[in-house]
Amino acid sequence: MSFSNTIEINKPIDEVFSAVSNFLQYPDIFDHVEEMAKITDGPIEVGTKFKETRLIRGFKAYATLEILTYNPSKQLVVKNEPSGLVIVQDYIFEQTGQGTRVQLTSKVKTKGLRNLLTKPVMTKILKKEDVENLESFKKYIEGVRE
């Protein structure tokens, strides 16, 4: 199952790509991300992995994120594997007259019977989270503070 969302961010494409691809600053951008650690050596590129710690309803949840495509200022594809799900997020960046358009397409696959049965509910939650995450990127990159 896949779904897409798009947002306009009023900043240059290089600045937007840099912020979205800088996973180590995610705890500053997203309330639900408690910690992010790079677990591979070298520069950020295809194959780079991060360990994400989220706080969900008072419990810590862990996931490994892996960069599948890293094409600066054009495309970033990330695989995230939390608790029996496989989520592939494909970010496409496009310069516009006003700034940058970011299109996020997420594909969700499940592992195991339990996750197959809960996939519709999880997909609904992930769709909402994608919209919220794009809004959080926009606020952070544009310097809007609440």
Give a verbal description of the structure.
It is built from 3 helices and 7 strands. The chain is of the alpha+beta class. It has a single domain (2-22, 45-50, 63-142), classed as 2-Layer Sandwich (Alpha-D-Glucose-1,6-Bisphosphate, Chain A, domain 4), CATH 3.30.530.20. Strands 1-7-6-5-4-3-2 form a 7-stranded antiparallel sheet. Strand 5 (75-80) and strand 6 (85-95) form a beta hairpin. The protein starts with a strand and ends with a helix.
What descriptors fit this protein?
3 helices; 7 strands; Alpha-D-Glucose-1,6-Bisphosphate, Chain A, domain 4; 43% strand; 146 residues; alpha+beta; Polyketide cyclase / dehydrase and lipid transport; START-like_dom_sf; 7-stranded antiparallel β-sheet; Polyketide_cyclase/dehydratase
Q: Return the average pLDDT rounded to an integer.
A: 89
Give the strand tally: 7
Query: What proportion of the residues is helical, as a percent range?
Result: 25-40%
Q: Strand-residue fraction?
A: 35-45%
Number of helices: 3
> What is the H-and-E element order?
EHHEEEEEEH
- Supply the CATH class: Alpha Beta
The H-level CATH homologous superfamily, spelled out, is: START domain
Strands of the largest sheet, in order across it?
1-7-6-5-4-3-2
What structural class do the secondary elements suggest? alpha+beta
What is the makeup of the main sheet? 7 strands, antiparallel
- Can you name the CATH architecture? 2-Layer Sandwich
